[in-house]
Design goal:
Order of helices and strands: HHH
Low-confidence stretches: none
Helix content: 40-55%
Distance between the termini: 62 Å
Shape: flat
Number of helices: 3
Structural class: mainly alpha
Mean pLDDT: 83
């Protein structure tokens, strides 16, 4: 069996489903009379202690971490 390679890939259609899931979650649910907002993903690296502090702040405020960061960005960018 030396030299035999077995490739393990995704199930047929798995990549398409994953891509659809990401693109579907990137669009906010439409409200009546309001066009949907297209969302973009932002990935940043932060120190573990800062992540922990953000998580505590979000939990204390009863909001999602992403919503908290979005509100801070909106305030700083004066949108």
């Amino acid at each position: 069996m030396i030299g035999k390679r077995v490739s393990i890939g995704l199930k047929p259609g798995a990549q398409k489903r994953a891509d659809d899931w990401v693109s579907d979650s990137a669009t906010a649910p439409p409200e009546e009379g309001v066009p949907p907002v297209v969302m973009k993903r932002l990935t940043i690296d932060i120190p573990e202690d800062l992540h922990r502090a953000l998580k505590v702040k979000a939990a204390t405020d009863g909001v999602k971490m992403a919503d908290l960061v979005r509100s801070w960005i909106t305030e700083r960018c004066e949108i």
